[in-house]
Amino acid sequence: MEKMLNDFPFRTVLSFDPLFDYLQKREDRPDQPISFNKRRIRSLLEQVQDLRGPIMDPGRLKGRSGQVNRLMGTIFSPLFWETEAVGVVSPLSVETFFVSPRFKQLFLDEKGGVQGRLNVGTTQFNRGRIIQAYLFILERFYGIRQRFDYPLVRIVTDPVTGLERHFKMTLDFRFVDIHAVKAPRTLSGKERAQVLENLTNPEKLRDILPPEDFELWGFIVIRAVDNTVPEVISALERELIDQDSIMSRNGFAALQQNLKTLFGRANLVATLAGIQDDRALLLNSGSELIHRCIFTDSHHVPLSAFSGTVFERVINDQEIIRLDDVARVKPIGGFQNEIVETGVRSCLIGPLTSQGKSIGTLHLGSPVPGDFGALDALLMEQILPIFSLAIKKSLDELEHQAQDVIRRHCTAIHPAVEWRFRQAAMRYLEALRKDSRAKLEPIVFNNVYPLYGTADIRGSSEARNRAIQKDLIHHLTLGQRVIRLALKADPLSIFEELSSRIDAYIDKVQVGLETGDDLAVITFMRDAVEPVFSQASGFGEEVSQAVDAYFAAVDRKTGTVYQVRRDFEESFSHLSQQLSTYLDGEETKAQQIFPHYFERHETDGVDYLIYLGDALVESGKYHDIYLHNLRLWQLRLACGMARRAERLKATLKVPLEIGQLILVQNAPLSIRFRYDEKHFSVDGAYDIRHAIIRSRLDKAVVRETGERLTQPGKIAVVYSSADEADEMTRHIEFLQKKGYLAEEIERLDLGDMPGVSGLKSLRVPVLSKPAGA
């Protein structure tokens, strides 16, 4: 089959007979237009009678060029002869014998051979020729008519611009006739079905209709129509489906080459940029004028760099801007001056948009002033939508990659600082393209203010131990009852020994729990006591009921009685959850006032940490008023949490109370993200003091009395300096007037803690109800 596709199997014969027949039929028709001169046609046909029949040697036509020209003039209009690209070839061949000047200029080389390349490969081209020949045969001899669109595009180099041009080759088959070398065979119904089934399989058709039985006589007229614009736009659409065409050097080079062809400018330079947040990202540039690109070798440029330039107009107004000479645009400076330095003089700049929002720009530049006209702007308008889709896809993919980097290296990031991690991830992805050993840059925020607060569920550890203690005693008591009833029914010494051991465990647990006591009791009951229950159950109904009561009370998952502890855990969890929910809701409101870093932890209550400062804000706009506002917010938040806890206490199975603490520090510090630990920590020996204080405050006590600093229903404000105390006193007095806090304020010195000394505190009670309630 490969040989058949490579060698055209049909004999082709150049002949003017189909044209003679066509003209004869037109001469006989009464409805011919005035331009059809019957007398002239009849005279011409008489003069070229010797050209009838097969022309085995096309060379004999050279001496008859005048007659051939007049004969072809019946097909081609002399008005368009100099401008149209038309040619005539033998049936389904590539050998031309008559061409217009334009056709010769575009498609023939110096030796008369056809130049350029087709949009299909050789095998596909030959397959199409064979299929077309068989369709002629089937229609001529068997009445089988099938439509076959065989779009051919020949790509040639324009002799003037040196750029590729695309021409759609339209084939006119009116002057092709099929001759049967011998009488055509009759096809059975089965064979006709096989033919229809295998129209695209020439080898199968050959078995039924051997090509040696037919000849193709006549010629084919080829008209070449410039189809460069739609072909190149289609090529751009195909290339832009692949993200690599935008991001890679080779892919973008192919894009730029197509843009050169589309706009007919060999020196065109394309630059593609995307907009992400308030930055422009240079996705690629085809600049070959000098080594620098118009972004001064930077891949990220703040949008503020475009202020007052035509790029700002393009982005804001979303309209195409055409500049005849960038050097003459006034005022010039900054960004526009950099464009001039690259060698670009005239340019087209178009907006790339998605859902009405500007997401990038397409910049086409030329070193020739005035090189782009109004029609070029119209042409750019056609391609902007496909570039917009490609940019949107690339920006989404870039964002996806950045988020993947953040997830892998940084875990969950607070939204307030996500912008900084995205910047680092983008630069990391950019660096990876140059060096596979690239690492994420350090993320450090300098001069930020810490705010720390905690709502501790008072006595939770003791309450938990008491609950465990009660459940263990109940567990031991239930087991003791079974053993004593069994001993009464059958006074075995082993029962007496087990009863004594149970009493010893009860005495030990009642004195107080030590680490591992709960596990020791559970193990003892499971391994030493419970195994005798099966025997004891047979000692009577009373013993059997005691065994059932024991197992009904013991929780299967924990292996012990879990009633009092369950009540405590449910109460603790409910209170902790309610405090967290309240804190999260209030923090969301505070975040809307001014963005800040926030993290919350749940231990024996809830604690939170806030960082605030200009380094944390992408715009860099910050004022200390937001710090003072957050400190007032902290106090009001503590009041709200205290009131909520007080209302909940009556609904809890185990009444619980909270004590609250706020740590104030006026000195800013630096924080660094630890990639190995995936969290922020203070950066520097001096700043570590704040972290040490936070870790010690849960043990803080009043120096004079030794009592614990945090007390139920009170807020303790810890500070180091007088100015910190003055600010928090003002806030406290304001909330006292608002009815949140009681009038009395305790001023306390705190006892020294490991590595921490000299701390002081303001402590004030919270009013359980608003003033006037």
Description:
This protein is of the alpha+beta class and 773 residues long. The protein has four domains: 2-225, no CATH class; 230-396, Beta-Lactamase (2-Layer Sandwich); 460-558, no CATH class; 567-765, 2-Layer Sandwich (Alpha-Beta Plaits). It contains 24 helices and 25 strands. The strands form four sheets. Strands 17, 18, 19, 20, 21, 22, 23, 24 and 25 form a nine-stranded mixed β-sheet that branches. Strands 4-3-10-7-6-5 form a six-stranded antiparallel β-sheet. A hairpin with a 6-residue loop joins strand 6 (152-157) and strand 7 (164-172). The longest helix is centred in the middle third of the chain and has 37 residues, at 374-410. The chain is elongated. The termini are far apart. 31% of the residues are buried.
